[in-house]
Amino acid sequence: MNYFYILFSENLNQYYVGHTSESLEERLRKHLSNHSGFTGKTKDWIVVYFEEFETKSLAYKRELEVKKWKSKVRIIKLIKSSAG
């Protein structure tokens, strides 16, 4: 399975949008590991939203769609809409 996902860091008060063909648990473990990327700035990332896709390209397409929003408000609305 392929995933589009959103992570949240309370320390940074920021969201991270990504996609993966790995399990969400494995991908989160990598985000929490020591590295120099954006998510390496803190270790409190949690998965707050995800969608499943049949192909990696569809998950990537969704990632790009959400990143084009450039809107924290729209991301929060998306997350809240799934909490129903």
TrEMBL record:
Cited InterPro entries: GIY-YIG_endonuc, GIY-YIG_endonuc_sf, UPF0213_domain
Residue ranges of domain GIY-YIG in the record: 1-77
Annotated PROSITE patterns: GIY_YIG (PS50164)
Family: Belongs to the UPF0213 family.
Name of this chain's protein: Excinuclease ABC subunit C
